[in-house]
Amino acid sequence: MRILIAGGGPAGLTLAACLRDRGIEAMVIEKAERERTGGYSIGLHVNGWNVAERLGLIEDLREKAMPLGPAHHCDRRGRKLFSYDYRTLAKAADGRILAIMRSDFQDLLTRKVGRDVEIRYRTTLENISDDGDGVDVTFSDGRRDRFDLVVGTDGYRSHLRALAFGPVEHFLRPLGYRASAWRVRLEKPLDASFVGMMDVDHQGGLYDIGDGTAATLFCWRDKRTERLSPAERLEVLMERFGDWPDPVRSALRSPIDWDRAFFDTVSQIEMPGWSKGRIVLLGDAAWCLTFLAGQGTSTAMAGAYILASELAGKPFAEAFAAYEERLRPLVDRVQAVSRRIGGHYIPQSTLGMRIQSWVLPLLLSGPLVRRTTARLGAPELALGPAGS
Questions:
Q1: Which UniProt keywords apply (predicted)?
Q2: What are the C-alpha distances in Å from 172 to residues 14, 159, 207, 269?
Q3: What is the rounded average pLDDT of the residues 376-381?
Q4: What's the whole-number mean pLDDT along residues 21-41?
Q5: At a CB cut-off of 8 Å and minimum separation 6, what does 185 contact?
Q6: Residue pair 126/31 in contact by the 8 Å Cβ criterion
Q7: Four-CA torsion 354, 336, 41, 11, nearest 10 degrees
Q8: Where are the alpha helices (DSSP H) in 129-247?
Q9: Going by fewer Cβ within 10 Å, which terminus of the chain is more open, N or C?
Q10: Three-state SS at 51
């Protein structure tokens, strides 16, 4: 069996590693440059942790992980609202949680697949044709090839999904927010793992990476979904956050490389089915949990592991069906959580912001934190083929 993976992010590279371990040939195409790095951090939770353990990556991930410590939230004037501690969350998760820069995670996965998996950068799909016995593919550089299966892991604006299933508008569910993230060099050290500020309809903050830089994350209420140019993005950010004090002010003054930064709508993908013939979708291309749920990378990794396990032991149609049957309940649950969290993460009123300041420290304290994380997190999935 020969499989094409369209998208070289965490989902695609995890799938490539899992297929390789099962003796299945895979090739990855990725539109970005080899050296491209994302300017934001990702969280690894129980399902991603379990996959990373099976791939032998945990110690490397720990070495590259961002420091866990206090998180301080302030109002837009810099006055403290509330705090909690990521170490308490880690303890509630029995230590199976970490945060890492996406670029570091990408590097570890790329080294994991090594020379056994061909990765073609600066390459996208031009055309695909599934004739029932295989999939003929034309690449953006004009080359053609044929594969037994094609897997789309190319993000929530998936080009493969558009080619095989239809326009993104058919499946897009905007949640009413926009977000932006990039990496900055700190003018002075943060006094916590995270320093954030919030106001009605807005939240912005910086995560300490531990090397003199920070990962920003800004989110605000905005129902528009059109793409914006780099100049328009900066204009929106300055309009929304430009008069906020440090560390937000210093982050907005720093140069932003929009080739490496993130700026987009916060949206979920909702599809009646994730496969069509010999083509199947995985990760954000199939569901997109959004950063609000904090489970996107871990769920994509678990999906990759389960899909590879099913393909190793079943005909592809049965494997696709089993993969979706096992992932769908978790995806539906986490998407629902993400929709609920949005209204709390982005305060809708001053009163709501004050109530959140009182309630969150209680929910994330020692006595209640396990119950809170169990309610808002993803249940632990059984890995490997169904029935094993």
A1: Membrane, Transmembrane
A2: 25, 14, 29, 5
A3: 84
A4: 83
A5: 212, 213, 254
A6: no
A7: 180
A8: 159-164, 230-241
A9: C
A10: helix
Query: pLDDT above 90 covers what percent of the chain?
Result: 75
**Sequence-ordered alpha helix ranges (H) in 71-113:** 86-92, 102-113
Provide the pLDDT for residue 387: 53
pLDDT in tens, 274-315: 999 999 999 999 999 998 888 999 999 999 999 999 999 999
Q: Which of 198-212, 314-328, 342-356 has the lowest mean pLDDT?
A: 342-356
Q: Averaged over 111-136, what is the pLDDT?
A: 94
pTM: 0.93
Q: Report yes or no: 360 and 27 within 8 Å, Cβ to Cβ.
A: no
Q: How far is CA 90 from CA 56, 87, 369, in A?
A: 20, 5, 10
- Residue keyed to tokens 């998208």: 7
Distance CA 381, CA 70 (A): 29
For 284-336, what is the HEC assignment? HHCCCCCCCCCCHHHHHHHHHHHHHHHHHHCCHHHHHHHHHHHHHHHHHHHHH
d(CA 186, CA 175): 31
| pLDDT (tens digit per residue) in 230-255 | 999 999 999 999 999 999 999 999 99
Nearest to 49 by CA among 104, 6, 8, 105: 105
Tokens describing residue 333: 């649950």
H or E segment to which residue 262 belongs: strand 262-269
Region 178-184: mean pLDDT is 94
CA distances to 16, 83, 227, 267, 285 from 157, rounded to whole Å, are 21, 35, 11, 10, 7
Q: Which residues contact 198 (CB under 8 A, 6 or more apart)?
A: 73, 74, 75, 76, 81, 204, 346, 347, 353
Q: Which amino acid is at 371?
A: R
Angle, helices 296-313/10-21, rounded to nearest 10 degrees? 30
Angle between helices 350-363 and 366-376 (to 10 degrees): 110
C-alpha distance across the termini of the chain, in Å: 22
Counting runs of H as helices and runs of E as strands, what totals does the chain give?
Answer: 12, 19
- Per domain, the residue ranges of the chain are 2-173+267-376
- Nearest C-alpha neighbor of 277 from the set 132, 66, 65, 154: 132
Q: Taking 80 as the threshold, does the pLDDT of residue 349 lie above it?
A: yes
CATH topology of domain 2-173+267-376: FAD/NAD(P)-binding domain (3.50.50)
